[in-house]
């Protein structure tokens, strides 16, 4: 791997992963906001769904853990290049899928399609946790809040799909 350890150990890379997390939080919030209209408030929600005010703080914790976890993995690129590159590819995939879920569920008003995308995201983040763990145990442990929140999110999305009807077009 042609990356010098001083470059990847630089605080700039930590800042990069932190900014990706902040960007993902902002994108998810914006896409959610776009879909919070009459359609959303008419949905039946599961009795185990947390209160609305809890979602943003939980995502802040999840993404605040994701940034250092990814940096810890990226720092090992000289020692475990192919494994680190696989981990970073999974990281990139989960960023895209995470934003995509908000787009599908809220903006496009398609929880049914969003559920299938969420199943893929679950698999990617599980694979990411396994791969991170092969590089850094601490990095894998930092993904536990993400895994727990995804499990709950998947259960909520599944319940919504099972207890609501969706038209083929929003609105």
Descriptive notes:
This protein is mainly α. It has a single domain (5-163), classed as Ferritin, CATH 1.20.1260. Helix content is 77%, strand content 0%. The protein contains eight helices and no strands. The chain has helices at residues 5-8, 11-35, 38-41, 55-74, 81-107, 111-135, 137-142, 144-163. The chain is elongated, with a radius of gyration of 17 Å. The protein starts with a helix and ends in an 8-residue tail after the last helix. The mean pLDDT is 87.
Q: Low-confidence spans: pLDDT under 50, at least 5 residues?
A: none
Average pLDDT: 87
Question: What is the H level of CATH, i.e. the homologous superfamily?
Answer: TspO/MBR protein
Number of helices: 8
Query: What is the CATH top level name?
Result: Mainly Alpha
CATH architecture: Up-down Bundle
CA-based gyration radius: 17 Å
**H and E order:** HHHHHHHH
**Counted beta strands:** 0
Structural class: mainly alpha
Task: Report strand %.
Answer: under 5%
Keywords for this structure?
171 residues, mainly alpha, 8 helices
């Amino acid at each position: 791997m042609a990356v010098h350890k001083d470059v990847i150990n630089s605080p700039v890379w930590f800042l990069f992963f932190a900014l990706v997390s902040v960007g993902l939080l902002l994108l998810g919030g914006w896409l959610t906001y776009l879909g919070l209209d009459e359609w959303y408030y008419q949905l039946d929600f599961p009795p185990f769904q947390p209160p609305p005010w809890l979602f943003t703080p939980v995502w802040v914790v999840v993404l605040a853990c994701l940034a250092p976890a990814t940096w810890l993995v990226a720092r090992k690129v000289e020692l475990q290049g192919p494994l680190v590159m696989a981990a970073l590819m999974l990281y990139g995939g989960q960023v895209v899928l995470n934003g995509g879920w908000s787009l599908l569920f809220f903006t496009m008003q398609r929880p049914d399609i969003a559920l299938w995308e969420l199943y893929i995201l679950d698999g990617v983040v599980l694979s990411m946790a396994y791969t991170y763990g092969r590089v850094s145990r601490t990095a894998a442990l930092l993904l536990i809040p993400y895994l727990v929140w995804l499990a709950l999110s998947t259960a909520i999305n599944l319940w919504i799909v099972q207890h609501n009807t969706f038209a083929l077009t929003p609105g």
